[in-house]
Structures are given as structure tokens and as C-alpha cells.
Amino acid sequence: MENGRELGELALRAGEVHLLPVDEIGEEGILVTCSYVGAPAAKDLCVRPEAYVRAVEVLKRETGMTIAGLISNECGGTATTNAWLQAASLGLPVVDAPCNGRADPTGMMGSMGLHAQAGYVSQQAAAGRDAGAGRYVEMSVSGSLETTSGLVRQAAVRAV
Length: 160
What we know:
Blueprint: H1 2-14, E1 19-21, E2 30-34, H2 49-63, E3 67-72, H3 84-90, E4 94-96, E5 122-128, E6 137-143, H4 145-158
Parallel strand pairs: 1-4, 2-3
Antiparallel strand pairs: 5-6
């Protein structure tokens, strides 16, 4: 919970956090789910707050999409403020529509059923780790939810 409080305070120092109800987003509005992906067994966890913002920037750059808002992937001690820093830094709203009620060990479990839609293409971006350690990574991937989620998870493991 302390990490979530610190992240929330950092976001409020970065700018304003605007919370919108989901019904204020039009049907064509693109919402981006923000989540933390890590390697829980790692001894030396290191995710810098600027990487949260960078992942959204990479997604925008690589896909060209216009983002209507950001949502958190889950509720929890840290995740409740997930998307706040990105939103405040990039001038986007946080939309009150967390997609996942709990932390899921795989992207598939938190996919809101999109994996069951034939032909659905997931577009994901990730950034993180300590650049000074020579393990910083940025990536953008498109494909099935199973494949893209697996690639993001593998990047997290490799960056440790």
C-alpha cells in the first residue's frame, strides 16, 4: 500500500489526475490498460516510475493510436494508482473501469475475455529496468493476447 501511496503522490506532483466515468468515453474511444509486469522471484526488483510513462509513449509511437484514456488493470495496494502517473504526465484521463478485480498471474486471465474474440489483435508495450545495469528494455508487440502477453512477461524476466 505504501508503494501505491508514493506513486499517487508522484503522479499528483507531475500534473492533474482526471478521473472519468467509463460512460464518458465514446464507443470508438481507445482505452489502454496499464499494468505492472514483473518477475516475482527476482531478488533485485527495479522499475522506475518513468518507465510507466515511457511504455505508454512507446505504444502511442508504435501504433499511432489516439488514446482516449487509461485504466488500471486491477485494484490493490499499488495498482489502485496504476495509470495515474502516466495520465498526469501525458495529459490523459484515468477512466473508472479497472478491467480486473485482482492480480492475475498471466495476461490471459486479465484479458476481459478479449482472447475469445476471433481475430482480436492485442497491442502491448513495455519499458523498464535500470539502464545503468545494462538491462533496460523497451518493446512494442502486436498479436494474439497469449503471444503478446508471453513476450512482455519474458522481457520482464530477462530485464532482471
